[in-house]
Amino acid sequence: MTLPDSHPHANGDAAADGGALLRLDHGGIYVCQDGPLGAPALLLIHGSATSSRSWDALVPLLTTSHRVIRIDLPGHGRSAEPVDGDYAPLEQGRRIGTVLDRLGVECAIVVGHSSGGCAAVALAEQRPDLVTALALINTGPSMDAFIAPGSTAMDPTRWPPTDEQIRQFASTGFRTGYEVPQELVDELRGMTYHAVATAMRASIAYLNQRALPDRLMPLGKPLQVIFGDQDRRWRPSSAVDYRVVPGARVELLPGAGHTPILEEPARTAALLLAFTAIHNAQTPKTP
After folding, report:
1. Positive or negative, the Cα torsion across 111, 116, 120, 123?
2. For every one of its 287 residues, what pLDDT tens digit does the chain have, with 9 covering 90 and above?
3. Spatial distance between the Cα atoms of 262 and 251, rounded to a whole number of angstroms
4. 174 in helix, strand or coil?
5. Could you state, in order of their start, the residue ranges of all structural domains in the chain?
6. CATH annotation of 8-281
7. pTM
8. Which residue, 167, 205, 224, 228, is the most exposed by fewest CB within 10 angstroms?
9. Complete DSSP assignment for 104-140
């Protein structure tokens, strides 16, 4: 779905796949919308080294009751690398807020997967007016929960990597035995090494500065945490760290790895829809 005609100020250029590229001050941001424009807004933010396509299996399960908005973060997917080179979650949050303003969205329930959860929290920190509630999917609460990878680091002098190198690098992003989708392999190969490495370092710095539960507590936003209990990147038991946030709902998905949005879309959607049903009444409809 392209940008609605009712928002000509969005300054978007139509993309070949039906989305649009919004022209922002530090580079274009790709946006895709699905579902009724008048339904409550649900914003989906992907993690590092992937794109809005990581939500493809989940979106059809959400659009009957939501205006689903997806973006490609700077340097990912179809979005430009930021001119200023700033991949910090706080800057990502600022740009996401600008995107929502351009789309005429007054508030939304915001969902982040993996490091996309850092951008979601950063958006809530800076623009609490835009965020009705937050859902974090396999987003590590702090670096204490990180599972150090094996010898899967990519060599910047041999970029772009081969399909096999990418699959090895991305393998811990899924439960054991799950085949990394070719679309995601292609997307990662299309990124620059600088974008991949800098975005990951920026998320680590954000978590090292302050753990996410500590950031969330003063915000007072309803929170749902979903974690695959077979996650090989973040210790699944760390999901309970979010319970310090008043009213937080924490759910473990048995048999799912780091990316339940692709591995278990139906079960993930069911949890999200149960959460959004409670809070959609607080989300004004947008024209």
Report:
1. negative
2. 433 333 333 455 666 566 999 999 888 999 999 999 999 999 999 999 999 999 999 999 999 999 999 999 999 999 999 999 999 999 999 999 999 999 999 999 999 999 999 999 999 999 999 999 999 999 999 999 999 887 567 889 889 999 999 999 999 999 999 999 999 999 999 999 999 999 999 999 999 999 999 999 999 999 999 999 999 999 999 999 999 999 999 999 999 999 999 999 999 999 999 999 999 855 444 44
3. 17
4. coil
5. 8-281
6. 3.40.50.1820
7. 0.92
8. 205
9. T---EEEEEETTHHHHHHHHHHH-TTTEEEEEEES--
Rounded to a whole number of angstroms, the CA Rg of the chain reads 17
Lookup result for tokens 């620059």 = 192
Bridge-based pairing state of the strands 131-137 and 108-113: parallel
Tokens representing residue 209 in the block: 């500065």
Q: What is the b/e burial string over 113-130, where b = at least 16 CB atoms within 10 angstroms of the residue's CB?
A: bbbbbbbbbbbbbbbeeb
| Other CB atoms within 10 A of residue 20 CB | 24
Amino acid (1-letter code) at residue 181 = P
Burial class (CB in 10 A: 0-12, 13-18, 19+), 266: exposed
* 106: Cα separation from own chain's centroid: 19
The pairing of strands 223-228 and 249-253 is parallel
| Cβ count within 10 A of residue 14 | 11
Rounded Cα–Cα distance for residues 106 and 44 (Å): 16
